[in-house]
Amino acid sequence: MCGIVGAVSTRNIVPILIEGLKRLEYRGYDSCGVAVFNDGLQRARSVARVAELETQVAETGFSGATGISHTRWATHGAPVTFNAHPHFSSDKAGVERIALVHNGIIENYEEIRTELKALGYAFVSQTDTEVVAHLIHQLYDGDLFRTVQKTVKRLSGAYAIAVFCRDEPHRVVGARFGCPLIVGVGKNENFLASDAMALAGSTDQIMYLEEGDVVDLQREAIQITDKNDQPVTRKVHTVSAYSGAIDLGPYRHYMQKEIFEQPRAITDTLEGVQGFVPELFGADAAAVFDDIDAIQILACGTSLYSGMTAKYWLESVAGIPTQVEIASEYRYRTPAVNKNALIVVISQSGETADTLAALKYAKELGHRHTLAICNVGTSAMVRETELSYLTRAGVEIGVASTKAFTTQLTALFLLTLTLARLRGKLDAEQERTHLKNLRHLPTAIQSVLALEPHIIAWADAFARKENALFLGRGLHYPIALEGALKLKEISYIHAEAYPAGELKHGPLALVTEEMPVVTIAPNDSLIEKLKSNMQEVRARGGQLYVFADADSHIAPSEGIHVIRLPEHYGLLSPILHVVSLQLLAYHTALARGTDVDKPRNLAKSVTVE
Question: What residues are paired with 499 via a beta bridge?
Fold first, then answer.
């Protein structure tokens, strides 16, 4: 979940390292730091944001042609300066020789730490990372590349590292296992980073390291070996480096910008879709879809809720049995295996550690067919699945996912209709209707976005609360879960979601006039049941905040506040309703004065278990 940028060049690379950290700050912002070679190792660290680090290095005249930098999401050790990366390792004379940054978790660090302490190494941090720096120092044989190859064989867990040595200031060495790390290819300079976006403006020539790779960067040469220490060549891709994604334009926060980008993101996700054909998901999709009789969805967080929504679609429209499971739980149990089930993994980044591990576990259990729904075409998840669909949401910087979620739903609806068509459950007229509705979806979302002023008024009331309930029924229950997650993530209001019919089985005990109850009320077959559940809330003095369709016949009254969405959108209704919940969470957080884009304790890309 941390961000890494490294470079070796003939010029001062500190501005590149700092700018790269700004673009990676979404990956973690508990602390940050930079180290360079300048007649020895120099380091600056901060427990504030990257902007403060930038001021610090500018005031000290910090510069160097070889360096590494890091923005941290804390795992081992509190977010204090002595735990901030880069970490150094010194010789017995106190001369600092190794500088290292790390993303991931070293599971056997305590064992190695004990061993190194016995050899006389002094530890000044609480991190697992410092162990790696000292281990490299202890194994160093005059060749940093060879030393890192030896070092990583001692490590258990997940890691991406970048390291340089005082004795070889012309090189930076990187390694990855379970965490992303890319190489940027330049002229008379080369780079390492967690994400290509960090290198926008410096290079668009990118190599993606594979599991177990170790890379030696020098100014005019790049050498890579695989997990068996054999020389390999990784393909160079020309990558549009998303530099425009960091411009806020007229918006106050990235989250707000990304909420309003959803019509464009869905349009892009549907680009080229003329019908519901297997080839949308890969050249071999027709044979795969013909060979499956069930679906198993694995995901975490917001992506899990998109999968839960898709379960309703896949079973009711395509008639295919579907299970949805939290990836971090699935990987630690012994499930009954249907080898004819299609494993569907969902992730914004394609680097989510728990979901990748669950995918690997599913393959080990004998599952033959896999599909990724993902926003990053070059990610590990896409490379490791048989089939894929790219959501084309564009870069999502705000930690609380918005456009990634709605484009995941769009892709999953396409999967549903494709399977329905192949299974003879979708006739030509139904196909035309669904295609028309999908094409109209961006316009329908624009109509929901136009409700922002009304939602702001609700947010002012929500901002004074500390608890909230969200209710939904049927395929809108996962949307209630997502709405509650958004509110708690960025406003720090405790929020929970329930199927509305479950109120009387316990949660109703929480309802008082101080408890706002957000209700998703589409005009579907469950609307009358939902109205009865709403009356249960009103009878206990609860305040209802209802997002209703225009024709759902729910009128505002005492204790019942209503915002009407412009139209009922049938099976695609969840996508419209979740946009209204995103706006509610955003404006509530804004009213409470929280850091919307960088909520406490969280980070965007969850690359640790």
Answer: 472
Give the max Cα distance, the chain. Answer: 80
Please say if the pLDDT value at position 492 is more than 90. yes
C-alpha distances in Å from residue 192, one per residue of 4, 58, 202, 226, 402: 7, 23, 11, 17, 29
Structure tokens, 140: 């160093």
Between CA 520 and CA 209 the distance in angstroms is 44
Mean of the per-residue pLDDT values of the chain = 92
Is 74 a residue whose pLDDT tops 80? no
Tokens found for residue 125: 């941090």
Active site residues: 2, 604
Backbone angles phi, psi at 210, to 5 degrees: -95, 170
Q: What is the mean pLDDT of residues 137-151?
A: 97
Q: Which of 495, 482, 468 is nearest to 401 (CA)?
A: 482
**Residue 325, amino acid:** E
Reported as type and span, the H/E element at residue 329 is helix 327-330
Tokens of 278: 């297997």
Q: Is residue 2 packed enough to be buried (19+ CB in 10 Å), middle (13-18) or exposed (0-12)?
A: buried
Q: Which of 485, 471, 580 is nearest to 536 (CA)?
A: 471
Helical spans, DSSP H, in 45-120? 50-60, 109-118
**Which tokens is 379 given?**
């990610």
- Phi/psi zone of residue 452: left (φ > 0), alpha (ψ -120 to 50 degrees), beta? alpha
User: In one letter, which amino acid is 512?
Assistant: T
Distance CA 346, CA 268 (A): 18
Based on the number of CB atoms within 10 Å of its own CB, is 504 exposed (0-12), middle (13-18) or buried (19 or more)?
exposed
How large is the average pLDDT for residues 383-396?
94
Kindly report, residue by residue over 259-285, the tens digit of the pLDDT: 999 999 999 999 999 999 999 999 999
Q: Rounded to an integer, what distance in angstroms lies between the CA atom of residue 332 and that of residue 348?
A: 23
Q: What φ, ψ does residue 9 adopt, rounded to 5°?
A: -155, -175
Q: Which residue has the tokens 């994400």?
A: 195
The yes-or-no verdict on residue 154 having pLDDT over 90 is yes
Distances (CA, A) of 128 to 85, 101, 199: 11, 11, 27
pLDDT digits (tens, 9 = 90+) for 511-520: 888 889 999 9
